[in-house]
């Protein structure tokens, strides 16, 4: 402070001296305070520090030296300049004053100008000193704040889960890295600060420099890049780098925030795999298969290749699931897919379309023979049994083949056509292949048309029941009838069940139609009971789907109660294969109905599983020998032997036997001879309308016993061979 109104403390035990000095200073604009002793002075300084002290040396109690020493020892007063005022003229007193810490001294008598000059200079120095001290304190505070900031920043940098790196564009070296960067890359900080991003596989130096310049020049202000980095141990790490440029003086610093995305990438890879591959077999799923087929077709058009799509469906796979369980079914699907893969070349594709359906893409340079070769290869590969959890299983497959460009040129149509051709192979008896033909398309459309018409037929009640009599061989009398559905399709006349039953089965409509048959048959039983026809048993055919998807026991029970008829007048005819679906449930339903008194019969016996031992689990009253064995019974020894075995075994199990499709007297004679219980067939009557049947019943039509022995000798000699 140089302004004259600085405060000056005058310390002198002589009040006169104080007054004199005050009088000298006031005109210069200084404020003065006086103290008569050292102690008073110290107390004044403590409450109101002056800018300068004029201090007498010789004072009682505490002299000027002592007071100076005290003030200079205290940091809060050390910078107050002290001028010692002494009457002593010797040099040693002055030096002692300076030694004690005083800045200046004045000799009495005091020269006004000298005093003014000294005071002014000391005040100037003090002001400068004060300024320096303040400035230093400020700088120190700033440094402390910066250090704390940096510490916080470092802590934050090190605490983040992202790696942060600062690269000097000029040297392409790291100039700063956080702890996460070190952990992520497996280097120490010191090691990283000696290298640059190109050392850890971020890119070739030139390429990286180009990228950094792009960031610097603002082509991409913030740039996000997915890449791989190499750890110190050589392992790779998937990262996402977010980069931006920061100017630092004349240099550019590239700040990189690096995130480890290895897990995310793995999850993405897994999701992609799940979305495109079948988890059971590991084969491409339907989605990926389509994609691959589309790509193959594009390439094939360019290269003028032929492409074949094969649709492969296992035959009767459901039986494996139902008899050996789903786990074994799964095992079979895996093994089956392995065999398919082995049947094709590496460049071909095998995919799983769902369930037991697989599809293949084959590219061929010449003709469609290649497709036939593969289809046969598949069939041959399936000849060997599969060994699944201790079970030996043999399966066959039905294969549909379609060709590009012959049949279609887009993936969807090709696959649809291959599927259609596969169905044709199924209908042809399975274990075979079929090429798609234009006629198949026509058939498919006709089938769709029929499906639509059948839905309408259910609503409009266009179905009718015909009845075929069953004759008891001991009496020749009609003891029951089989209800056979007919469809009186408007504009088409009577449609044979062989055309529409498979469509009802495939579409699931059989469940609704099956219920209708049961209800209608029961109504008819009731009507006959009330008429002169009397009690007559009707058997109805039941589909496996009625057990699984329908409410068979509910349908039967309500039809019986609504019409108030004794349950034994209703017989359910089931095929062997329908009993193999969901066996436990089927047995439970049949047991329930059997307990009520409903009769159970096995239809088409001999064509399916044909294990009597297995069938013993079911509550069966009657077996119906399939028409296929009856047809040639009189001249085919095998058929005759089989029919005989069935009759004997069934009787052994206390079941009755009925033969269907009996058309000739020879067949009748054979069956009667070997004690078949009932027959049904054109020999006695074809299926007829209710009216015709009623006529037959009322006229008590019966079957005369054939005159024996009708070519029985031929049959017997054939059997004895
Ligand atoms: N074990 C197992 N079974 C499956 C799987 N996916 C579907 N299925 C079963 O596969 C069967 C497919 O049967 P379908 O093709 O309709 O009939 P099928 O018995 O093979 O008879 P056809 O094809 O007419 O010869 C059904 O019973 C499904 O329940 C699966 O991943 N594992």
UniProtKB/TrEMBL annotation:
Q: Name one GO biological process term.
A: phosphorelay signal transduction system
Q: Name one Pfam family in it.
A: Response_reg
Sites of the modification 4-aspartylphosphate?
A: 56
Residue span(s) of domain PAC: 223-273
Q: Which InterPro entries does the entry link to?
A: Biofilm_reg_signaling, CheY-like_superfamily, EAL_dom, EAL_sf, GGDEF_dom, Nucleotide_cyclase, PAC, PAS
User: What residue ranges carry the coiled-coil annotation?
Assistant: none
Q: Which residues form the GGDEF domain?
A: 305-438
Keyword annotations = Phosphoprotein
Where does the record place the PAS domain? 149-193
Keyword Phosphoprotein annotated: yes
Question: Which PANTHER family has this protein been placed in?
Answer: BIOFILM ARCHITECTURE MAINTENANCE PROTEIN MBAA, DIGUANYLATE CYCLASE DGCP
Q: What is this protein called?
A: Two-component system response regulator
User: Which organism does this record belong to?
Assistant: Methyloradius palustris
């Amino acid at each position: 402070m140089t302004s004259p109104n600085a405060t000056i403390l005058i310390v002198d035990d002589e009040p006169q001296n104080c007054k004199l000095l005050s009088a000298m200073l006031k005109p210069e604009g200084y404020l003065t305070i006086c103290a008569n002793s050292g102690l008073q002075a110290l107390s004044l300084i403590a409450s109101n520090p002056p800018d300068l002290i004029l201090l007498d040396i010789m004072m009682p109690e505490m002299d000027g030296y002592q007071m100076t020493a005290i003030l200079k020892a205290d940091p809060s007063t050390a910078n107050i300049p002290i001028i010692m005022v002494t009457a002593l003229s010797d040099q040693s007193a002055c030096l002692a004053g300076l030694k004690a810490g005083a800045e200046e001294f004045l000799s009495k008598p005091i020269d006004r100008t000298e005093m003014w000059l000294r005071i002014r200079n000391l005040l100037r120095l003090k002001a400068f000193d004060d300024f320096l001290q303040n400035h230093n304190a400020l700088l120190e505070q700033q440094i402390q704040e910066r250090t704390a900031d940096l510490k916080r920043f470092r802590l934050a940098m090190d605490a983040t889960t992202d790696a942060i790196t600062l690269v000097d564009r000029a040297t392409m070296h790291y100039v700063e890295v956080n702890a996460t960067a070190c952990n992520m890359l497996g280097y120490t900080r010191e090691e990283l600060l000696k290298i640059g991003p190109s050392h850890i596989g971020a890119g070739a130096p030139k390429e990286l420099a180009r990228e950094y310049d792009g960031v610097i020049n603002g082509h991409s202000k913030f740039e996000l890049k997915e890449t791989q980095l190499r750890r110190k141990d050589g392992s790779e790490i998937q990262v996402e780098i977010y980069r931006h440029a920061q100017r630092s003086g004349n240099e550019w610093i590239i700040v990189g925030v690096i995130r480890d995305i290895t897990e995310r990438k793995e999850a993405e890879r897994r999701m992609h795999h799940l979305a495109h591959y079948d988890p059971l077999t590991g084969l491409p799923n339907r989605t990926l298969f389509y994609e691959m087929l589309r790509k193959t077709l594009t390439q094939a058009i360019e290269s003028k290749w032929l492409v074949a799509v094969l649709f492969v469906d296992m035959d009767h796979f459901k039986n494996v699931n139902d008899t050996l369980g789903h786990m074994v079914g799964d095992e079979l699907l895996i093994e089956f897919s392995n065999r398919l893969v082995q049947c094709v070349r590496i460049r071909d594709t095998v995919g799983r379309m769902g369930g037991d359906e697989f599809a293949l893409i084959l590219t061929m340079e010449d003709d469609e023979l290649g497709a036939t070769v593969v289809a046969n290869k598949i069939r041959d590969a399936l000849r060997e049994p599969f060994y699944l959890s201790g079970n030996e299983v043999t399966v066959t497959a039905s294969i549909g083949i379609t060709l590009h460009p012959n049949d279609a040129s887009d993936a969807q149509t090709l696959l649809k056509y291959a599927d259609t051709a596969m169905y044709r192979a199924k209908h042809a008896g399975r274990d075979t292949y079929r090429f798609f033909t234009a006629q198949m398309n026509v058939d498919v459309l006709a089938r769709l048309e029929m499906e639509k018409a059948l839905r309408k037929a259910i609503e409009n009640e266009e179905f009718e029941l015909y009845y075929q009599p069953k004759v008891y061989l001991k009496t020749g009398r009609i003891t029951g009838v089989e209800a056979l559905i007919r469809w009186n399709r408007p504009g088409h006349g009577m449609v044979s069940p062989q055309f529409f039953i498979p469509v009802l089965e495939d579409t699931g409509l059989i469940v609704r139609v099956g219920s209708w048959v049961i209800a209608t048959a029961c109504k008819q039983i009731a009507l006959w009971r009330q008429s002169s026809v009397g009690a007559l048993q009707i058997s109805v055919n039941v589909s496996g789907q009625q057990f699984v998807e329908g409410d068979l026991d509910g349908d039967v029970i309500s039809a019986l109660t609504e019409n108030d008829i004794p349950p034994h007048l209703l017989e359910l005819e089931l095929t062997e294969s329908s009993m193999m679906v969901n066996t436990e449930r089927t047995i439970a339903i049949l047991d329930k109905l059997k307990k009520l008194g409903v009769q159970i019969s096995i239809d088409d016996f001999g064509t399916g599983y044909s294990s009597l031992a297995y069938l013993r689990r079911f509550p069966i009253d009657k077996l119906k020998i399939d028409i296929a064995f009856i047809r040639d019974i009189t001249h085919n020894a095998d058929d005759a032997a089989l029919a005989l075995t069935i009759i004997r075994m069934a009787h052994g199990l206390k079941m009755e036997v009925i033969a269907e499709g009996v058309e000739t007297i020879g067949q009748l004679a054979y069956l009667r001879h070997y004690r078949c219980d009932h027959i049904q067939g054109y020999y006695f009557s074809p299926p007829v309308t209710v009216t015709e049947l009623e006529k037959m019943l009322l006229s008590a039509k019966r079957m005369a016993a054939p005159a024996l022995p009708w070519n029985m000798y031929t049959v017997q000699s054939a059997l004895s061979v």
